[in-house]
Amino acid sequence: MPMMLKRWRFTTPTKIATIAAIFLASVACFAHATLFAAETHGIQIPVLNYHSIGVEPGNNYVLPPDAFARQMAYLAAQHYTPLTLGDFVRIIEKKQPSPPKPVLLTFDDGYANNAEVAMPILRQYGFPATLFLSPGAVGQPGYLSWPQVQELSAAGWDIAPHGMTHPHLPKLSREEQREELAESRQVIEHELGKRVDVFAYPYGEYNADTLKLLSELGYRYAFTIQEGWASSNQSPYKLRRLVVHEEESLKDWILRLQRAEDKSVRLKKAMS
Questions:
Q1: What 3-state DSSP class applies to 57?
Q2: pTM for the predicted model, two decimal places
Q3: SUPFAM superfamilies under this entry (predicted)?
Q4: CA separation for the pair 60, 149 (Å, rounded)
Q5: Cα within 13 Å of Cα(215), Cβ side
Q6: Confidence of residue 108 (pLDDT cuts 50, 70, 90)
Q7: Which of 12, 94, 103, 126 has its CA at 20 to 30 Å from residue 232's CA atom?
Q8: How far is residue 67's CA from residue 77's CA, in Å, rounded to a whole number?
Q9: Residues 6+ apart with CB under 8 A from 215
């Protein structure tokens, strides 16, 4: 320590100027990194995407009930806050503060087991969810009936369109796409008496016509199945989700759920 003090005592003006320049450059880099992080990441929320909750070996989109129950127990134990679709939109639009650990639970298609299996598990924890429904499948074997859809809605689930017949949208003409997007919304609004303006692409597929039609028809947001957290910096019609697969272990599911959160924590620590 005495040697260090002695060396600083005889620092030349040139050295002082150099040190000052380095310090100012560091401050500038820090400010740039902070701004870059804010502009790059925006408000981030993990959106989990489920389909069928049941037992069907070999079908990666059918999650066993016990696996689903363990995931929901983990969210509760770790103090996650599942959001309504309205909460999600208001947080993304910076009109509402976000809880420390937000998550949006979404289900696609409209399987009967969403009401028979998933809803009772979610009810244990008071968790809301969002169902992206294809109305054309309602009442078919294995799918929800309208009384079940209404039961989900009454239980706090948000019901939103997933195409009328769950088509491959890019394979349709522009007018056929318009019919799928408009009719699915109209049917849901008629059956439930609630306005809906958020969409999820069947098979995660869309093209330029789809995006234009969503805007023309007054949809505010649309979800893909592209891997990642939804962010306020993404296109409102290209929000990402984390698709949950049957073959994924609980450990891997947790790692995927936490990945962006951990990056955020590391960034904060690096800047503190």
A1: coil
A2: 0.82
A3: Glycoside hydrolase/deacetylase
A4: 24
A5: 8
A6: very high
A7: 126
A8: 15
A9: 237
The residues, ordered by sequence, that sit 6+ positions from 258 with a Cβ below 8 Å of its Cβ are: none
Provide the H-helix boundaries in the chain. 2-9, 13-41, 65-77, 85-92, 113, 119-125, 146-154, 174-192, 208-216, 250-271
Token match 């957290």: residue? 229
Residue 26 CA to residue 51 CA, distance in Å, equals: 48
CA distance 62 to 24: 56
Beta carbons of 113 and 54 less than 8 angstroms apart: yes
pLDDT tens-digit map of 167-194: 999 999 999 999 999 999 999 999 999 9
**Exposure on the CB side of residue 126, measured as CA atoms within 13 A:** 4
Specify the amino acid at residue 265.
V
Task: For residue 84, give both structure tokens.
Answer: 């309504």
* HSE (side-chain half, CA atoms, 13 Å) at 177: 22
d(CA 48, CA 215): 25
Token pair recorded at residue 22: 């380095």
List C-alpha distances in Å: 187 to 106, 146, 192, 225. 20, 11, 9, 24
| C-alpha distance across the termini of the chain, in Å | 27
| Spatial separation of the C-alpha atoms in residues 128 and 85, rounded to whole Å | 9
HSE at residue 205, side-chain half, CA atoms within 13 A, is 11
Nearest C-alpha neighbor of 132 from the set 82, 71, 200: 200
